[in-house]
Amino acid sequence: MRIEISIFYGFDMAKPGNKRIIQKFGRLIPFLLTEFVDQILLSFAIHYMNREGEKPFACSCGNRERFTWKTQHGKRTQILTMLGKLKIHQMQVECKDWGRRLLITRHRKDRRPVWNYHR
Ligand SMILES: [Zn+2]
Fold first, then answer.
1. Which of 45, 56, 59, 104 lies at a CB distance of 3.0 to 4.6 Å from 95, suitable for a disulfide?
2. How many whole angstroms separate alpha carbon 39 and alpha carbon 118?
3. H or E element that contains 84
4. Phi, then psi, of 97 in degrees rounded to 5
5. Is 77 inside a domain boundary?
6. pLDDT band at 85 (very low <50, low <70, confident <90, very high)
7. DSSP state of 114
8. Strand, coil or helix: 41
């Protein structure tokens, strides 16, 4: 699957001193990583939601196929990665059978990020 990421990062800067430039760059890294993870997870979630058949998540009623989007940019949730903690957007879908809403950013039972949850 091809992922295309677009990132905008704006900030104020009074003078272009070396120390200030490096400090700004230090703040850019966690922002870039969060955006990177967010946009990749969203790309896959959209792919799974548009695809016919089973999803990599399930409702407690047993439904694995019929869901509608509730939000693609919900409240942020913290996840732990090998590069530190990130606060990514939650994504929520609704089961078309029972109307139950579920967060797909994390797997319901073991709390692992959904991108680790492949059968
Ligand atoms: Zn259901």
1. 59
2. 19
3. strand 84-89
4. -85, -50
5. yes
6. confident
7. G
8. helix
pLDDT, tens only, 102-111: 888 764 455 5
Can you read off the two tokens belonging to residue 111? 């709390």
Residue-wise over 82-108: b if at least 16 C-beta within 10 A, else e? eeeebebbbbbbbbeeeeeebbbbbbe
Q: How far apart are CA 21 and CA 13, in angstroms?
A: 9
73, part of any domain:
yes
Give residue 118 CA to ligand 1 midpoint distance, Å: 20
Closest listed residue to residue 59, CA positions, set 110, 108, 114: 108
Residue range of the domain that includes 91: 18-103
- Tell me how many domains the chain contains: 1
From the CA of 76, how far away is ligand 1's center (Å)? Answer: 24
The answer to whether position 92 is within a domain reads: yes
Residue type at position 112: R
- Mean pLDDT over residues 94-119, rounded? 67
